[in-house]
Each structure stands twice: as C-alpha cells, then as structure tokens.
Amino acid sequence: RVAIVDALPYGGTCALRGCDPKKILRRGVEIVDAARLMEGKGIDPSGLKINWSDLMAHKRGFTDPVPDKMEKGLTGNGVETLHGAARFTGTNTLEVDGQPYQSKRFLIAAGAIPRPVSFTGADLMIDSTDFLNLETLPKRILFVGGGFVSFEFAHIAARAGVKPIIIDRGARPLSAFDPDLVEMLIARSAAVGVDLRRETEIVSITASDVGFAVIEGKVAASNMLKEQKIVPDYSGIPTAVFTVPELARVGMLEAEAKEAGHDVDVRFTDTGGWYSNYRIGETSAAAKVLVDKSDGKILGAHLFGPEYGELINFFGLAIKMGLTAKQLKSMTAVYPSVGSDLGSLI
C-alpha cells in the first residue's frame, strides 16, 4: 500500500507555482518581444501590449485543474491521498492532523522554501509564488538576488510595462552560467528595461502607500522498492534561465574544465547574425562549446539565444552518452531550423 500526504494542493511546485505557470506567462512576453524585433521588417507592433489580467486567467486555465487531475490519477492507481501536515511520532509512525499512520518506509520530499533574510521590513516582501498570483502589476518591482527567478520574472515584468530592478550582492549574477554569455544577457536585459545593480545589499524596507526532482524521485522510489542504494546520475542534465532570449548550459563551465585538468578547446560563436536569428530579428545570441582536445568529447555547452533551451538538449545527450564533437556534428537536422545550426556550433 502507498499513501501520499501534502499540506498544499496536489501538483507540486513546478505545475502549480513554478516552471509551468511561469512559462505560460513567458508566452505573452515572447509574442510582444517577437513583434518588436520585427518592427521595420514587415510588422507594426504599435499598440501591442500584455493584458495582465487575461494572461493570468490563461495561466489559471492550466493550474486550476491540476490538483484534482493529479489526485484522481493517484487514487486511480491505488494510492491513498492524504491532506494536512505530517509529523513523525516514531521510527515507523507519523500523524497527519492527529490521525496516526504506520509504514515500513518513508520518502521525504518536502521541497524547499525561500532563503530567510534578516533586514528590517523583510516581512513586506513577497516570494515567487505570490508574484505568480498577482492580479495587477505595480509600476516598479525590486527583485532581490541575481538568480534564475529574478531574471525570468524581471523579463516578464519589463515586457508587461513594469520598471524592474534586480539587486545582487555579488559582482556577477547567475554565477552558475558562463560569464561571457551572462554579460550578453545582462546587456539584452538592459535593452528591454531591466536595471541590474551589482554589489548592492538591502539595509531595510519600509511600507509605502504609493528540475532534478523527477530524476531523484524515480531513483528514491526504486531504492525503496528494491532495497538498493543507487545515486542519481546528474551527468548531461541541462538547465536554463528562461529570459527572452533564454540562457542555457550543460556540463562544465570553462573554468571548471581547466581546473579539472582538461586541455580545453573553447569554441565560441556569435550567432547574432545567423539566419535562424536574423529571421526573427534577434541580434543578441552566442554559443560556447567546450571540447576536450585529447579525445574530442564535449565537456560543456553554453548557449544564449532564441530556442536554445531546446538546442541544449542535444548537447546534454552527447555528454550523457560520451559522444565526441565529431559524432554530434554528423547528425543531419531538418533545414532550415535552429537544430540545423548545431553542426556549425561545434
């Protein structure tokens, strides 16, 4: 017998208050940005704007049915669904709102919460979940921290007519990504009205009137059922910041590869003038592919540009399977497509 307990509606972060609703909002941004890039090239974007209320209703059209669908799917497969906060009362027992339950095995998948901050007025801030539920947008939004969420939401807000500011206490935001491509993203962000302020910390706030979870879950479930201790294989797993355009990476950073002792062939390409980007009017795009000179295998790939969140998956597969750059380059893609650019990036 299997049971699941959650104090929140069934569906989890990604489907209800993370990746999925965020990308639905991003679709509105894509339309506006695409039209503006084509101004003077056959498209007149004047008057085009995001209707935030309608866009949020479109988001809820996806998120609202999720809990019921998820719970019906679980119960249909014999899983008992519990609602409430769980508390362990013994080695093999726990309580859910006072009701006791006993099991041989427990899988704790509690997720994460925003990092607490201690400055005065921190209680006046909202988190990413609250942002995704804003019925109206203010004229200005301050995003604290130079990570994924700040950049993605700032790009959404900017195209919706808001003045977004990102403050980061470090010198370089998005530190897990290639620094050269991050700087390109920062310049592109500034062009659409995102104001980044580096090495800045908040002292106080005053009121005014004015994706690894699925892989880890599968491994954990397998370990429980088969009584084994396998760890997840994280090699070749790509990640992306869904700004417009997106920034994506897989494998090692250039500095990491060199520190690990690899003789690295750094293949950097500015793709801003390539057909796939010229076609849509985008001029800010680039790729950096890291190849080991000793065996030709791909060590890492870093992409910044339209649809590169899809293109990065080819590099992820290559790293996972230990393919050489020559082997990946031999793939024949549909032409003309962004995928057909792959061979020229290597």
Structure, described:
With 346 residues, the chain is an alpha/beta fold. It has helices at 12-17, 19-37, 52-63, 66-76, 128-131, 148-159, 179-191, 213-226, 254-259, 275-278, 308-321, 325-329, 342-345, and strands spanning 2-6, 79-83, 86-88, 93-96, 99-102, 140-144, 163-167, 195-197, 239-241, 246-251, 264-270, 286-292, 298-305. The chain has a five-stranded antiparallel β-sheet with strand order 9-10-13-12-11, with helices on both faces. It has a three-stranded antiparallel β-sheet with strand order 3-4-5, with no helix packed on it. Helix 2 runs antiparallel to helix 3 (52-63) and helix 2 crosses helix 6.
Topology:
Layout: E1 2-6, H1 12-17, H2 19-37, H3 52-63, H4 66-76, E2 79-83, E3 86-88, E4 93-96, E5 99-102, H5 128-131, E6 140-144, H6 148-159, E7 163-167, H7 179-191, E8 195-197, H8 213-226, E9 239-241, E10 246-251, H9 254-259, E11 264-270, H10 275-278, E12 286-292, E13 298-305, H11 308-321, H12 325-329, H13 342-345
Parallel strand pairs: 1-2, 6-7, 7-8
Antiparallel strand pairs: 3-4, 4-5, 9-10, 10-13, 11-12, 12-13
Helix pairs in contact: 2-3, 2-6
Domain Pyridine nucleotide-disulphide oxidoreductase dimerisation: 237-339
InterPro entries: FAD/NAD-bd_sf (IPR036188), FAD/NAD-binding_dom (IPR023753), FAD/NAD-linked_Rdtase_dimer_sf (IPR016156), Pyr_nucl-diS_OxRdtase_dimer (IPR004099)
GO molecular function: oxidoreductase activity
